[in-house]
Amino acid sequence: MASGTSRDVVGRGLRVLGRAIREQPRIFAVAVTGSVLFGLMVIASAYVVGAVVGKVVVPAVARGSVTDGALALAAAALFGISVLRVVGIFGRRLGAGYMQYRLQATYRRRVTRRYLDLPLAWHHRNSTGTLLSNANSDVEAAWYPIAPLPFAVGTLVMLVGAVVSLFLTDWALALVGLAVFPALFALNVVYSRRMAPRQARAQRLRAEVSGIAHESFDGALVVKTMGREAQETARFAARAGDLRDALISVGKLRGVFDPMLETLPSLGTLAVLVVGAIRLRQGAITVTELVSVAFLFTVLAFPVRAIGWVLAELPRSVAGWDRVRRVLDATGEMPYGEVVLDPATPAPATLAFHDVHFGYEPAEAHLPGTEVLGEVTFTVPAGKTVALVGPTGAGKSTIASLAVRLVDPASGTVTLDGVDVRELTAASLASTVALVAQVPFVFDDTVRANITLDRPGIGDEEVWAALRLAEADGFVAALPEGLDTMVGERGTSLSGGQRQRLTLARALAGRPRLLVLDDATSAVDPRVEAAILAGLRAPTDGGAPASILVVAYRRATIALADEVIYVEHGRVVARGTHTDLLATVPGYADLVTAYEQAEQEREQTRTYDEVTPLTSGLEVEVDR
Ligand SMILES: Nc1ncnc2c1ncn2[C@@H]1O[C@H](COP(=O)(O)OP(=O)(O)O)[C@@H](O)[C@H]1O
Ligand SMILES: [Mg+2]
Question: Which of 108, 114, 153, 263 has the fewest CB atoms below 10 angstroms from its CB?
Answer without folding.
Answer: 263
